[in-house]
Design brief:
about 650 residues, three-stranded mixed β-sheet, 16 strands
Length: about 650
Amino acid sequence: MLTLSEQACIAKIIKGESFHAEVEGGAFIVKIDEYTPVVCAAIHNGHRLRKDLEKSFMLSKDERFFEEDPYTDELISSFPIQLIGNDSRFEYDLNRAKTLSTYFKTAWNKQVWQKPLSAKQRVISQAKHESFYNVLEAIIAKVESLFSRAIVFDIHSYNYKRIEKDTPTFNIGSGQIDVERWGSVVKHFEKQLNKIELPNLAVRAATDEVFHGRGYLISHVNAHFDNTLVLPTEVKKVFMDETSGDVYPLVLEELKAGFKSAISETAAYFIRRFGSKKRMQKADMLSSSISPEVLEVDKALFSLCRHIETLNFINPVNLQAQRKKFMKNSYVAPSFNYKQLDLNPYKFREKLYKLPVDNILDADIQQLYRHIIDNLANKIDLLATIGTDEFMYNSLKYYGEPSEDDIANARFLLHLKPQIDENEKVLNADEAIACFRAQAQEWGLNCRIEKSAKIVAKAMVNNDKVLLLVNRDASFTEKEIHAFAFHELGIHMVTTLNAKKQPLKVFGLGLSGNTHTQEGLAIYSEYCSGSLTISRLQTLALRVIAVNYMLKHRDFVKTFHTLVSEFELDRDFAFTLTTRVYRGGGFTKDYLYLSGFRDIVELAKTQPLDNLLVGKTGLLDFAITNEVVERGLVNKPTPLFDLSYRSSGNDVLDFIVQSVR
């Protein structure tokens, strides 16, 4: 952060330069990442007091902190233009006129000074007050010149325990707002604030219920600018213990994200309605460049986790030998061996949680990285326990387990009669590889395709090596080849390649819930391509049943024979299915294909899916994924085929898909 004079700040603002600086000896902070129509201020955030005033100051640190507005800087941390007061309001109050900004002797019925401040002391404090408003004026003038309008969010917090009535979580003060002109914006902001959800708290927004917005900041701006709206906003101190000053981090985190959404949506609405640019969206209110703090965390996270791919460790290294042995005696469970984990899980978790995620100022991007760090910590627990009794517990923690609805959907699908074409040509692994290579070339995918004896599935993408592996013993019908091409190449390989092109490498690691999302999207691609069949859906259904049996029986042999007898499965297929869910010690991932497909189908009915292709994305963070694409922080992906929801052209299949709920 720079240290700049008031004049240097104003010179930079006039030139339209971005900067981050402390001004006038650190009295306040100016942060301009990019010029947008929205300005955010937290003028009572600070607690500093000049040394020459400390001897005369009567209040304790706790008393001072009680009347200040701590953490309001965090509520506006996501926005490109910020003004944050560092000095205590007891030295000079930025929400009072300059000549009244220094308290004579008392404030809030408490004696502040042992004796009144001297004229010299008042002049120094009031000069900092004047400096703040000179910089604010320069910012608003610049924003108005660029966008014809500006909107200022003047954020405060208030103590509520001493108020003997139910008070709103958010209070907008309209006492100095021209409601005839700007009233619709006030109502819009109140509506957006009411959408915020906080843990274990009821949320309510109101206008003029506790405070009426009669502070100096709005009156000063109103006196100098005709095309700028100020929204004075008080936040109830539900994010902290107002008496002790202890913060509630989980509430504050959700509040930051909620404020980001409410402010950006309101600002976009304001500019669309009153400004010169009619296509403004929420993303336009936010920075279009990646902050150094995000890049630092992203680089460190990717360096730490780039080679940790579950399937590299979960597939048995002695699969073929154990398959042959089991087929000779299917009453003795196979004994699988696995690749050794080449990292220390304890040090890995320690490094994960030491990453400076708190330095990321954007609330949603910070949450995205928190989600993936928690996800990776669970993943390393999973990998560190492969082959042990703890593995299944960690699989349940990482992937979850099928719900009653999932099992009901599976059994519904298994009661259907598949359409079998006995004349359909069957291709071996070499022929399949030739088809996949031709399709990859047609789509312009720069990847390798090879045969493997070390995978359980018919085919799978190795993300780290940008490699499609085809099981050397697998056979494919022509329809399956088409389906697998869309599934493995059209989704898994595309998201692998797209992730490698992104400036944020986190999309190559896999966001939280990426297995559910990516597998669901891959099955959906089969549906879009006209390749999905009832037989394929039944295979997904059998995976759900197999996971359920594994959790119920905990016995490889019993599960195998139950699948063979109940569903009349081919023994080789039943072995593969059973192996998929027992590898590692109890692997629950396979139920996610069907539930993921169901959820992607439902999502496709309401919004475009294209941005799920930026990398290994997840539905949990789809909103922020869309946002970073819209802001230009990551490259917008181009699908190889249309992902919009539509009929498959097969009425029976469409009915079946719609019946999976």
